[in-house]
Structure formats: structure tokens, C-alpha cells
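Posted in: Protein Modeling Q&A

I'm a second-year student putting together a small comparison for a lab meeting, and my supervisor asked me to include a predicted structure for Cyclase. I've never done this before, so apologies if this is the wrong subforum. The sequence is pasted below exactly as I got it from our records. If anyone can share the C-alpha cell output, I'd also love a short note on what stands out.
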Amino acid sequence: MATYSRRTRIDAPLDAVWAFHRQIDGLEALTPGWMGLRVEGVVGPDGDADPAELFEGSEITMASRPFGVAPESRWLSRIVARERDDGYRMFRDDMLGGPFAVWVHTHEFYGDGDETVMIDTVEYEFPAGPVGPLVDRLAVVGFEPMFRYRHRQTKALLEGGSYPDWMPAVDRDTPAGAEDDT
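Accepted answer (user: helix_wrangler)
Welcome! Here is the predicted structure, written out as C-alpha cells:
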């Protein structure tokens, strides 16, 4: 199985970066326009449509048509883990259906004073049979610009303390962990 990882330091507190990423609006805000992403539905672990937050068990149905000309790719992702500890937040999603034979994406956030270190790690396999390992290594060509964009967008949207309107209120001066969600 191949692995891709990207790490970025963000000048924003852990709770702000976490609040941004724990909702579907965060995914939409971080997906480059050229990906042609359409979130078709979100179902929470209790079966409720469009939950305010992505908890373990939430499922997301998406479609993507890169550059508006590539064949449409449909995805069904599920949040399979979510952790919160002192100075650390994490969630992991996997793909139940889509273009990869295996897709496990771990989103990690480490508080470091008033800053956050964000790490995205993707473990993946294409359904390419015996040539799969070669195809897997070539995927970085698509992953690199997408994740570079996502990390730049996170910095642009969160650094400076002027957060998107849809994001839950976060006080830059509140210590990490002061909110009471999980």
C-alpha cells in the first residue's frame, strides 16, 4: 500500500483549526475548484441528514469531475475514528465506494502554543491488479497539488483570526480544549 503525507504549520490555535475541519463546510472550502467536487449528501451516525458536525460513523456522498471534462468519479466516505486529547485532535475517514481499492485518510492536528501543526496522511491503493504498485506511486502527481492547495487554503482561511462565518465561534485567546465537544 502506498502512503502520501503533507505537514503544515498554521498560525491559528488548535481549537480553531479543529472547529474548521470537523464540519462538511471545511471539506468544501478546502477542495480546489478544478476538482469539480459536489457533496451530494451527509448522513450522521444516527441517520440524520446534514449533521452540523462530522462524528464517527458519519457518511459523505460526493461526486467529482476534475477540470469539468474528466469522467465523473463518485465517492462514499465514512468517518471511522475521531480522537481528542490534550493538545491533539484527529479524525480518519475511509472510502466505502469510489475510485480506489483502498483509501484511508488520517487528519491530525497538534497544538503548539498559539499555532497548530496539521498533518494529512493518505494510505491508498488503486484497483490496478499487478501493475497497482506502479500506478500507486504515480498518484502523487494528483495528490501533491490538491493537498498543497488544501494546506494553503487552511492557512489563508484561519491565520489572523478572521474565521469563515459558517464556522463555530472560537476565541483565539481561549486555551485549547476549553470547548466541550468531542
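A couple of things worth pointing out for your meeting: Residues 140-158 form the longest helix (19 residues). Helices lie at 14-21, 24-30, 132-138, 140-158.
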